[in-house]
Amino acid sequence: MAVRRVLKMGDPLLYQKAAPVEQFGSPQLEELISDMFDTMAALEGAGLAAPQIGVCQRVVIFGFNSNPRYPEAEPVPTTILINPTIELLGEETSEDWEGCLSVPGLRGRVARHTKIRYGGYDQAGSELDRTVSGFHARVVQHECDHLDGILYPMRLKDVRLMGFEEALFPDL
Ligand code: NI
Fold this sequence. Notes:
172 residues; alpha+beta; Peptide Deformylase; binds nickel (II) ion
């Protein structure tokens, strides 16, 4: 159990393609996931990917009932997702503000697929298969991008769609 340091944009580890997890149920995997939850909770994140704490494996976590960083967002079930796959459903995309614990203090308006089906495994190797939309779909796409070395600013159509939280949301 430990809050780990979150790597910030610019750190080369964030731009690598993460490797699949090959062994489920190991103490190392349990410890990694436990550290990820501690770190996400300490920073009030909506999600976290293992590469953000310097572990280049295909592990993400996300979920919350309510989140002060995303007050408008509907609840997302607390989820451990390993070796994920995403199928984009339909053509519809929506634009919304995103933040990232590796890009502190900033937000950007990112277009994501509105509806997706995603799959993967939990830490014990049990399979997961969900079809989701809205903020849930957004969080999954954001976190899984981390596993391919993609940070949300790399998806902005225009740098003017990014800014500091205090400038964009002075009332928050
Ligand atoms: Ni992120």
